[in-house]
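Box S2. Input/output pair 1.
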Amino acid sequence: MSGIQQYTPQLTDNDPQGFLLGDNIIGDFNTTTNNGSGYGAYSAAEKNQTYFAYFSSVGSTTPEIIDQTAYFVKYLIDAQGNVVAPQPNSIDILNMLQNFETGRVVNVTSLEGTTLFTTLLGTKQITGVGRIQPILITETGVERTDYITTMSFSAGPGGVGLDSAYNYAFSATKVASAYISNQSFATLDFGSVSSNSGSNYNNSTYIYTFPNDTTSQGTQVTFRTKLRVTSAFSGPNQNGRSNYIKIQIQRSTDGGSNYSPLELTDGNYTKLRYFTDGSTADVVAQTKPLNFNTGDKIRVQYSVDSSGVANQLRILAADNGASTLFTNTQTYIANNFITSPFWSIGTYTTASNDFTVITASLGLTGLNQNQYLQVTPTASLAFNFSDITLPFTPEPGDFIRFEYDPSNVHTIYENMTTTGGNLALKVVPPVPSGSILDHFCIYRVNPNAGNQIILNIAKPSGSTSTNLTGFIKPQYMSKELEDNFTTIIQKLAAEGII
């Protein structure tokens, strides 16, 4: 079997373009052998077509498809003059796809006398059939630098959380109980790890290190520590000491050279707890949900005001049945967002030059797996993009364009997953070297969402008091349809149908 098979017997929401490989009701148009299409020894793409289309208006496809025009099909008409309005997931849609295949030539005529739309008439080439639906957009203008670097998302179907993004979770406990007397801050030794996704917590240095930017995952992280502390002080101010313990959860942004305390949920940066004779209490410190950057380091430190007074404050640990721990949780932002970079090239290598594999970031991968819906950027709406109504689930047959460049448009040929779990898209033709991958849009041409035939001509600017109406004729109509064309038009006009 050769070539790409384009049409399957039934179009579904999961395969609106019939792109997925399977039984092909019109045959393989790159061969001339009889492969079950029912049209003999010739490919169905070469057969004479038995329908023409009546369109009731036209519209520009820019900016989704640059400088082309959508002709809104109202009716398909056969050689006997039978009229049908194509409905989603019907044989009529298949008839429209068969008679007006992408890449084929058509002739556009009109009964209108206006000169504004003259360029839209005559011989044109089909570039798509269906309604254009944007899926993911960063583009905001025509220049290479006109794009956003942060994308926001709302919950997808079923409102699932972004639980396929990176998992930062860990939990560590202190093994042995110990008396403490450090007046200067010292790191607490949480040496027993019960969970450590990604191995980001080091149970020798007692430091957690972030492997990536949390904003790229659409998430924020909270750190929490709990110490079970018991006191043997005989009074609140024994030996001139105020008998307290201080706890800080500290962050380093320079690789561990310097640390500073994080803000806690109570608005303070230090948890302070006083003790009296014989009292035991849990001292809990928890940060607010925060964003962290790649390489940020987190640790817990303490100090006490009991220097010179031995065996007065003791941290109880697992050997005393106490839960003294250091852990974190992550929360998904109500309006999830991720920041660039969104794509990379080079995860896969190939000796062939006929395709490129682009790999999605971890954050974009998580949004894809949970079918999140991008919130259409305000600047993209101002640039006349349509509102995004489809979740981020790119499919074979969808298109991705970079840099608002009509020569940098690629068809998604295959969805893949890298060994690291990232979404990857195999696209054809290959992406030119040096393309700005973060300046892109992904869109779908869905015949089940709208009866439109897209032709390779820009719609003129301006407007008239009436819509352009007319007919789209396949280049190779059947003899019967060609012979009856004028009579059919006259009959339908007389009946007020057109």
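Box S3. Input/output pair 2.
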Amino acid sequence: MGNKPLNHLQIKALQPTAKKQKIACGDSLFLIIEPIHKSKNGKSFSGIMRFPPTKVGKQIEIRIGKFGDGVNEWTLKRAKEEWLKLRGLSKEKGIDPRVLRDANKPDYKMKTSGITIGYAFDKWFEVNTTYGLTKEKIWSKTTIADYRNRIYRQILNPDDGGFAPDTPIKEFEWANGGRTKLFEMREHIQKRGALRQANRNFKMCKGMFEYAIDRGWIMEPNPAKTSKETSQPLSVKHNPILKWEELDALCKDISENSISSQPEVVQATKLGLLTFMRVGVIAPLEWKELDKKKNIWTIPYSKMKYQREEDFTVPITKQMWRIFEEQRPISGETDYVFFSPRSKSKHLNASSINAFLKRLGYKDRLTGHGMRGTVLTANEEHLGFEKHIVRIQMSHKLGDKVERAYNHATYWKKRVEFMEYWSNEMEKKGLFA
């Protein structure tokens, strides 16, 4: 056969020998034939790749499954499709392919009657944080942190109105009073005056139970299905913003740092005012995201609130470079621009910017997110740049799905012009005094 990959019929015809055989099937997928004394394990498929996919990455073997045409067995075609999918997703997401493989691996030892709500939430969480349920999209880092807290500290917390993780999921079927149980959880949270939190947790349960229904763990209908009561509109509390004439005092207050806050907090707040990026993107900013030659900050799409098919870029102005250069002696030897040795994540906590603004005297007057509304309003009332230029630079989604599908304009030159103008204005107002 030479080096030509095997086909399905040829694999069937192969027989075990005294030694273990490893035969290439193309695309780094291999057929493993166990030796005669282990022949009961037969033939199986495994893929081999480096992870991380660099020269320093270790070569690992990922078992796909047993060869065959039966239940829970893999034909050559299916094995190759699965392997290419795992390898591609691993390179794209930076996730160990073994984790991706196990995320959707059925637990054949567990009968449906033995599945608990804790197990169901574990699997739902695992899938959405590895390869995703829809269009191979996974949750963003901020969503993962938020949902982990809601699931394991609230929904699966019987001491706070939630459920014991070992409760059989069958008990949540509509016929078994599941709807009532979920409403009792929701009302427990609602009594604290946290209706928004109650509705969000209820909606999360809906997503998990849809996942469970699709897998035959419980019968329809979904016990957390939407109703008028659970989807009632809530009054939206917008983040406070400052007027144009109030920015002089803000810039001076940040620069003077009269409360002696940590340097990385002050610098991160300055960058927030110059870029109006979300605090969840600024806090974990990495040095590798900055390109001196191209003069751009490239934010990985996985860090953005709305995950996109491509990374988001921010023009870097001379004022921003000033912030980075002042940080370099402090954190240049670490991964993060705003390195924080006190944090488990080793970077600044996103909440630090809001805490800094409060201590400066801007409680109920401005938040880190409010800087975004501040610049948009300032542009409308004073600067006069085209609105869509500012909104694109804020990473807003513009237009409907059809328009976004066909209009791929970035307006880069106009965005650079606006960012330089805004940075110059903030410097004039005393941000670097």
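Caption for Box S3: The CA atoms of residues 31 and 45 lie 5 Å apart. The chain is about 45% helix and 10% strand.
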